[in-house]
């Protein structure tokens, strides 16, 4: 599943290309992907202009004219493909057939813009979804999720982090970082990298973290996520950036999926650890 840097990369790619466009038509063959019948979508979307492409956690938000919003979640296998006149922007999960800048058998949502360009929502496993909300419905829905702060916003401060960690003394660091009710957008990849940056084992109990370690976790979260956005995310097996290329942050990874290999810092062996149903990687020599 893409994490914050990958979804942010898709947001930036789409934002440059679809803001200002007017939706002329919409079609979908998958009712469960939508929160209203298709006819409702068609009526509501026709003639609406895309004002802004935003993001909350791992969801993309298209703000439309007349207080409408489209919320997208790519989930495990979703992909957004913008088919322009002379260019193609692909963001999300590649499909086995390779990158196609056209409708294909995994296309379950299609937006046609008034300038005849297209946006396709492709999804092999159909867990992804689109929701159409008014401003009010959108804010109610987002509130109902009980999400933690965006890690790159001011609300995720060192003071906030100290207080939040103190509320869950028995929790372990990596699963805590990966829970969107604590802080959003951090999954298996970036939680491993943040723990390595902070020199803290992923299974450390929160109550045992020192002030210095908490400060390092705070710094690492900001630095690593910003750096990953700069490199347009990480591509391991199932994610590409908004141009359909593998995210370049893959080359920057220090521990994620490197178990059994030598640590770049100490040359010792990177270990793996099972935590909360996920496999993490860490260096037992560099991380205490
Ligand atoms: Zn090491």
TrEMBL record:
Domain of life where this protein originates: Bacteria
Source organism per UniProt: candidate division WOR-1 bacterium RIFOXYB2_FULL_48_7
PROSITE patterns, alphabetized: FPG_CAT, ZF_FPG_2
Residue intervals of the FPG-type domain: 254-288
GO molecular function (one): damaged DNA binding
Listed cofactors: Zn(2+)
This protein's record includes keyword Transmembrane: no
Chain ranges of the Formamidopyrimidine-DNA glycosylase catalytic domain: 2-128
NCBIfam families recorded: fpg, PRK01103.1
Pfam families reported in the protein's UniProt record: Fapy_DNA_glyco, H2TH
Protein name per its UniProtKB record: DNA-formamidopyrimidine glycosylase
Family, as annotated: Belongs to the FPG family.
Catalysed reactions, as listed in the record: Hydrolysis of DNA containing ring-opened 7-methylguanine residues, releasing 2,6-diamino-4-hydroxy-5-(N-methyl)formamidopyrimidine; 2'-deoxyribonucleotide-(2'-deoxyribose 5'-phosphate)-2'-deoxyribonucleotide-DNA = a 3'-end 2'-deoxyribonucleotide-(2,3-dehydro-2,3-deoxyribose 5'-phosphate)-DNA + a 5'-end 5'-phospho-2'-deoxyribonucleoside-DNA + H(+)
Subunit organization: Monomer.
Protein's UniProt keywords contain Zinc: yes
